[in-house]
């Protein structure tokens, strides 16, 4: 694997220290899993786990893929374990879209999803979900979404069967069985060559009626105008419906890439369902800016467009990419714009920005926002092109995670590594939701000890909260011998150091 001089220097400096630290923090916990539970003191924990005080989370597991019986994995960026993650309770799905899985066709980029379960002895690999999708590069696992007992996997590079047309996209639905295994609950291909359906997927919780709704983003449809398909799981039939709905933007145009990101919410109270859908078109121009971006809000049984949201000054800020990061629950909407500009970062390409909208009077109202703090960065503070807001997630106790996967030198010696990545955690001072600069709780990322952080490791490419845990995808990290294989780091609430939440 070709490495830059910067990468070689960083890796060489870390080999000795990583080997010294390993016996103190690592213990076997099944295939592809390592649990770290050394709480000797705050400083040692901070050094070994990549945790910083203030947010009350420590890294409790490091997961990797098992490629036994697979063909040799690609060089370069590797199989991209952790490109997407989805966690719910004790279950975790990890998308690995560049994996080669077929020995009879070793060059096809099929992709695979690894499913883990947390048990008494740590995280255990339960299944590898492979596919027989059509096309040279289906990239299954490019996106994953999980709300128990449903799992949705996106394969945006899949071809329409036996048509000769490429890139329609496909999704595969999985269902958790009573014996704690996952089986296919249906699959769907989508019309329109190049639509790339499955680029992003999301699925709602299952209501008391047994109904759940899935949303599938197709940003390449109709010359990249983009659209979204939705499907319903009906508890009465035990299957995903064939009569789906399509969602498009009222002002959609070629190149907008509507459906590049999306978030869905569905809740039931006394038999009455509330449905909300947020869809990003991050490449939409707002004159005179290109790639300004816009987020569309939909609701009701037929997904009626109710509101559009843009960066308050998108026409002045150039390459904003508003909506690249997107997360939503019943009353909170977090929008990340990795090209957003703040006064602390006035240069192009921009550093990134995140904004929080709150549900008030039937509409989303801007509540607060801010750029990166990046205390552990080298250099510290906002960095041009760091991509702050590329990925966002809503978690427990009003906790918000915001990734900047292209942050340089995060806690690395002399700042030698580029695009290592980091994640900031935020919450309002009074314990309410909040994402402004003053709501900063702390940061997590690859520390000097704990991983060989090559250039362009991109920690924070994916994020997912599940219960009182946070999963962080680190898809391009690796070792000098293995090459880039990717990892997922699991952070849990540290009950011993719970007072950190108040600092």
UniProtKB/TrEMBL annotation:
The reply to whether Chaperone figures as a keyword in the UniProt entry is: no
Q: Which UniProt keywords apply?
A: Signal
Cross-referenced InterPro entries, in alphabetical order?
Int_alpha_beta-p, Integrin_alpha_N
What does UniProt give as the signal peptide span?
Answer: 1-28
Query: Which Gene3D superfamilies does UniProt cross-reference here?
Result: Integrin alpha, N-terminal
Q: Does the keyword Kinase apply?
A: no
Name of this protein? FG-GAP repeat protein
| Naturally occurring in which organism (per UniProt) | Pseudofulvimonas gallinarii
């Amino acid at each position: 694997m070709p490495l830059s001089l910067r990468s070689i220097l960083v890796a060489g400096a870390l080999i000795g220290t990583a080997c010294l630290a390993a016996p103190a923090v690592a213990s076997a916990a099944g295939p592809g899993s390592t649990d770290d539970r050394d709480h000797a003191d705050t400083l040692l924990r901070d050094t070994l786990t990549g945790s910083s005080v203030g947010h009350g989370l420590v890294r409790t597991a490091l997961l990797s893929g098992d490629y036994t019986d697979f063909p040799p994995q690609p060089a370069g960026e590797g199989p991209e374990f952790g490109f997407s993650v989805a966690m719910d309770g004790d279950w975790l799905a990890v998308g690995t879209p560049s994996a080669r899985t077929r020995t009879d066709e070793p060059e096809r980029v099929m992709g695979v999803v690894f499913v883990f379960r947390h048990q008494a002895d740590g995280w255990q690999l339960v299944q590898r979900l492979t596919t027989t999708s059509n096309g040279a590069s289906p990239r299954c696992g490019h996106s994953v979404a999980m709300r128990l007992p449903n799992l949705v996997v996106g394969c945006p590079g899949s071809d329409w069967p036996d048509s000769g047309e490429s890139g329609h996209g496909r999704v595969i639905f999985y269902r958790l069985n009573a014996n704690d295994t996952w089986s296919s609950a249906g699959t769907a291909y989508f019309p329109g060559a190049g639509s790339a359906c499955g680029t992003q997927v999301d699925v709602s919780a299952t209501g008391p009626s047994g109904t759940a709704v899935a949303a599938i983003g197709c940003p390449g449809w109709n010359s990249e105008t983009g659209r979204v398909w939705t499907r319903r799981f009906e508890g009465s039939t035990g299957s995903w419906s064939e009569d789906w709905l399509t969602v498009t933007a009222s002002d959609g145009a070629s190149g907008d890439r509507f459906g590049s990101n999306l978030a869905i919410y569905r809740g039931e109270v006394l038999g009455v369902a509330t449905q909300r859908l947020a869809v990003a078109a991050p490449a939409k121009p707002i004159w005179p800016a290109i790639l300004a971006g816009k987020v569309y809000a939909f609701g009701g049984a037929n997904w009626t467009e109710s509101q559009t949201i843009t960066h308050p000054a998108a026409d002045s800020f150039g390459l904003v990419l508003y909506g690249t990061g997107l997360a939503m629950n019943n009353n909170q909407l977090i929008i990340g714009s990795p090209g957003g500009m703040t006064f602390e970062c006035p240069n192009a390409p921009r550093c990134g920005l995140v904004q929080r909208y709150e549900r008030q009077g039937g509409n989303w109202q801007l509540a607060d926002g801010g750029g990166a703090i990046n205390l552990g960065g080298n250099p510290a503070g906002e960095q041009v092109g760091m991509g702050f807001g590329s990925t966002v997630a809503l978690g427990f106790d009003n906790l918000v995670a915001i990734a900047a996967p292209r942050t340089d030198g995060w806690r690395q010696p002399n700042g030698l590594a580029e695009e290592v990545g980091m994640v900031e955690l935020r919450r309002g001072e009074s314990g309410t939701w909040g994402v402004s600069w003053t709501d900063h709780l702390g940061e997590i990322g690859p520390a000097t000890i704990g991983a060989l952080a090559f250039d362009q490791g991109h920690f924070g490419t994916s994020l997912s909260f599940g219960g009182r845990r946070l999963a962080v995808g680190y898809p391009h990290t690796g070792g000098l011998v293995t090459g880039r294989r990717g990892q997922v780091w699991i952070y849990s609430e540290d009950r011993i150091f719970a007072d950190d939440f108040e600092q």
